[in-house]
């Protein structure tokens, strides 16, 4: 059962009320702190006064219903679920939580982190993490597990992969004394595999992904199997085992098509493009990139990203007219985005090819030096950083500027070494 002190603390932090504001005229600030940290048991009169100020009740008559609704909501918190269904269920639970003293409050608040991430509100997820930090010491073992898990997911989406791995490993440690369901254990292994992949720990990623795949297969979870095959494909691509990468992408694509998941299908088409680009097969890369762009269900932001890759392949293949056509398409799509900031890197890439095609080298050089390369490094797009450092070096070399050419070849080489030792 949730302690009344924890309940009060969470409700207070949710309402952004200070200890002083809540305690004034009821108890001393230090006594309220003791209540919230479960160092003392307040009498019924104090509880009523604190709850009245917070505009909440301690009625538990709806707790069984709340528990069932929460369980159902947790099960649909997935990328493949309809966002309207998730939101409707969330609001129903929140309305009940606002009026009732529920044992399910902490787990519900923790799961909000995942929900906010799924609806692309990282700001709300960050606020929720900040609010709940004050109550972490009161979490039960299962609450600790999900706390670490969703913190890891938040850090992953913030591209803080080291911190993400740290949180996932803490969640994994909790499982030594907390029995997970097969689905939940597979999810953790999948998340750890994704993070190892981002850190270029390909062998570790393959190990965790293979374990997750086996568990998902036993559950006949075709969609999750498709996602894991995609991770395996990426990992084998990193270590240049292209046949294994193609096999896993193909299996993932077949499974995604079986369950008609358009998002995974698009992702695998995109990753097929990256695979063939890394092999130097521009024709096949172009084929898969265009499959993504011709899909009307693909979000505009993804189309901007893919267009930048497509233009690169057209340029490398000397198809300059096609490159120019898609530069214009990509920039138009970029400027139509509501939130442009996360996709600036693709605007810089597209502009760099405009300057190369028009031989405006006085614009090309400062764009890469001052804008594109620093942003690629900041966003940890290491492969792209290496490619565009080498592109700049080759440009200087072709103009007999060997000093600057050497500088950017060295920069690319240093990044190779960094990636190899991540």
Largest sheet composition: none
**Total count of strands:** 0
Average pLDDT for all residues: 92
Distance between the termini: 44 Å
| Backbone structural class | mainly alpha
User: What count of helical segments does DSSP give?
Assistant: 22
CATH class of the domain at 4-54: Mainly Alpha
The CATH homologous superfamily of the domain at 4-54 is named lambda repressor-like DNA-binding domains
Stretches with pLDDT under 50, minimum 5 residues: none
Give the CATH topology of the domain at 4-54: 434 Repressor (Amino-terminal Domain)
Helix content: over 70%
| SSE sequence, one letter per element | HHHHHHHHHHHHHHHHHHHHHH
Q: Which outline best applies?
A: elongated
CATH architecture heading of the domain at 4-54: Orthogonal Bundle
Radius of gyration: 26 Å
Share of residues in strands: under 5%
Overview of this structure, please?
The protein has a domain at 4-54: 434 Repressor (Amino-terminal Domain) (Orthogonal Bundle), CATH 1.10.260.40. 76% of the residues lie in helices and 0% in strands. It contains 22 helices and no strands. It has helices at 4-14, 19-23, 29-36, 44-54, 63-76, 83-99, 105-118, 122-132, 141-157, 161-174, 182-198, 202-218, 222-238, 242-258, 262-279, 282-293, 300-316, 320-336, 344-357, 361-378, 382-398, 402-420. The longest helix is centred in the C-terminal third of the chain and has 19 residues, at 402-420.
């Amino acid at each position: 059962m949730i302690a009344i002190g924890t309940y009060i603390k969470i409700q207070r932090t949710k309402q952004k009320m200070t200890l002083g504001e809540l305690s004034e005229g009821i108890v001393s600030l230090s006594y309220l702190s003791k209540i919230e940290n479960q160092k003392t048991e307040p009498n019924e009169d104090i509880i009523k006064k604190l709850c009245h100020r917070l505009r909440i009740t301690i009625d538990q008559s709806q707790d069984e219903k709340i528990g069932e609704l929460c369980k159902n909501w947790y099960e649909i918190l997935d990328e493949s679920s309809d966002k309207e269904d998730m939101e409707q269920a969330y609001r129903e639970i929140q309305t009940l939580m606002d009026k009732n003293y529920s044992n399910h409050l902490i787990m519900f608040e923790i799961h909000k982190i995942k929900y906010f991430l799924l609806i692309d509100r990282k700001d709300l997820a960050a606020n929720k993490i900040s609010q709940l930090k004050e109550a972490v010491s009161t979490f039960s073992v299962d609450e600790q597990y999900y706390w670490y898990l969703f913190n890891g997911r938040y850090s992953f989406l913030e591209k803080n992969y080291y911190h993400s791995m740290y949180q996932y490993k803490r969640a994994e440690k909790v499982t030594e004394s907390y029995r997970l369901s097969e689905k939940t254990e597979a999810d953790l292994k999948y998340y750890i595999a994704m993070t190892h992949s981002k850190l270029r720990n390909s062998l570790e990623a393959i190990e965790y992904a293979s374990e997750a795949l086996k568990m998902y297969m036993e559950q006949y979870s075709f969609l999750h199997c498709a996602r894991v095959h995609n991770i395996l494909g990426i990992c084998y691509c990193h270590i240049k085992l292209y046949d294994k990468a193609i096999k896993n992408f193909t299996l993932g694509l077949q499974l995604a098509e079986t369950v008609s998941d358009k998002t995974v299908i698009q992702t695998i088409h995109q990753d097929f493009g990256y695979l063939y680009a890394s092999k130097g097969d521009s024709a096949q890369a172009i084929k898969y990139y265009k499959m993504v762009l011709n899909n009307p269900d693909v979000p505009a932001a993804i189309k901007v990203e893919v267009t930048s890759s497509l233009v690169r392949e057209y340029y490398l293949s000397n198809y300059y007219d096609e490159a120019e056509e898609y530069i214009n398409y990509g920039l138009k799509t970029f400027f139509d985005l509501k939130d442009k900031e996360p996709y600036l890197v693709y605007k810089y890439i597209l502009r760099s090819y405009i300057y190369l095609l028009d031989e405006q080298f006085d614009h090309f050089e400062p764009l890469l030096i001052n804008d594109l390369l620093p942003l690629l490094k900041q966003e940890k797009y290491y492969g792209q950083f290496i490619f565009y450092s080498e592109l700049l070096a080759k440009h200087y070399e072709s103009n007999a500027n060997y000093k600057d050419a050497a500088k950017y070849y060295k920069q690319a080489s240093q990044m190779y070494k960094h990636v190899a030792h991540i």
